[in-house]
Amino acid sequence: MTLATGRPPRTPGNRSGYFTVVDPSTGEVFDEAPDRRPEELDAVVDRAHAAWHDWRADPVARKAALLAAADAVDAAAAALAPLLTREQGKPLTESHAEVARAAARLRYFAELDTGTQPIADGRPVHSRLRWRPIGPVAAIVPWNFPLQLASAKFAPALAAGNTIVLKPSPFTPLATRMLGSVLAGALPEGVLTIVTGREPLGARLASHPGIRHVSFTGSAATGRAVAAGAAATLARVTLELGGNDAALLLDDVDVEEIADRLFWAAFRNCGQVCMAVKRVYAPARLYARVVEALAHRANTTAVGSGLDPASRIGPVNNAPQLARVEHHTARALADGGRAVAGGHRLDRPGYFFAPTILADVPADSPVVTEEQFGPVLPVLPYDSLDEAVRAANDTGFGLGGSVWATDLDRAAAVADRLECGTAWINHHGELSLAQPFAGAKDSGVGVAGGPWGLYGNLGPFVVHRPREA
Ligand code: NAD
């Protein structure tokens, strides 16, 4: 047998300089990754600086390299996707979609051009604005979409003409390392460096004096620490943080017609999606039908190893996250909630939790007020629409939200009242590469996605010169 990495199997242990990686579908260690020490970052960032001089100088070569990199990612999908599933847990089809998205993102940003813009203010000078690269970028990424979120950082940073040092989560370092090797075939040396390791590696990277932009995706608590670290060097920060998205069903909704989409908006990637539906608000008249429709799907969806083609939902990614999901669920049940589907771990090896639909949960239970980030969905009844909108907005987060209805104009009017960065009607979670992606409130700082994501990696440079006589 060979592993998806192409290497023969071996038994990783506590080898000095390495940390172990667990397969969440078995709970067993299956590989290891280099445990880089914080002080090693000095040489890495120095190399990123050295590589920056040539990389920023030639936009034509840069575009060609990024397009070649996209092709290389597509060509490596058959190796990348199973390794991603092995360490992350998600079904193989979702891993393939993640790899394809990484390649698409490279192509999207390679084609963007900010150009040079005149500034016309009536004064007798020619003022021209150009956007210039700012220097080495640090990227810090979580474990739920390792490749997709890595590409959301390196594609715009590299297209802007910056170099980048990227740190994946210690729970999912392997596919990102493989992606780094694939990209190394298309990019000049030092332009993109993947560093793996445990804390305080991320903290050091976020506060390294050679870094000009820290682009972080993860929890709000870590985001605050990252922003504090970057304050020491006055590096720019972009923070994509957590969410507690509400789905608001209106009283004309066709429950059966939307139930599949609503269910998967909550349970895709085992619910470990920043902009998953994490709370459903249903009109009291339809409450029982909504609960029943979701519970039916939760009870009949195949849960298992992501490498098994029959599985639609994989395991939770890691033991601390599973403990968090269990804790929130147990508390909701103790608070008077009912598990209409699931409500417990599955009695098998690995980090499996039964897809769970909770009814009758009090609005102040942590599974409603906090981001539980797992395969658990509370459904709450409401009597008046104003009350439902207030409840949907009653959270420190503001990433996304959705309204589900038959009358689309009425749904759009309700969507306008949601305090979040993206609102959907009759679906939830889909993002265009060309749209700005930003959270309101505690869900983030700065903008990723589309041209705004590119500008986030650039600085304005203005030249004034007198008009010719
Ligand atoms: P996390 O905050 O625990 O870790 C994220 C990354 O930060 C990891 O690479 C981790 O090793 C690193 N890290 C940990 N401590 C650090 C420190 N002191 N300084 C610098 N880096 C440090 O998050 P997680 O548990 O890996 O991911 C789940 C969270 O990510 C959820 O809150 C989820 O909503 C959020 N998320 C947000 C988005 C978004 O785009 N808004 C997307 C995906 C996930």
TrEMBL record:
Residue stretches making up the Aldehyde dehydrogenase domain: 17-454
Keywords: Oxidoreductase
Active site: E240
Lineage: superkingdom: Bacteria
Coiled-coil ranges per UniProt: none
SUPFAM superfamilies for this protein: ALDH-like
InterPro entries attached to this UniProt entry: Ald_DH/histidinol_DH, Ald_DH_C, Ald_DH_CS_CYS, Ald_DH_CS_GLU, Ald_DH_N, Aldehyde_DH_dom
Keyword Zinc-finger attributed: no
Similarity comment: Belongs to the aldehyde dehydrogenase family.
A Pfam entry, by short name: Aldedh
Protein name (record): Aldehyde dehydrogenase family protein
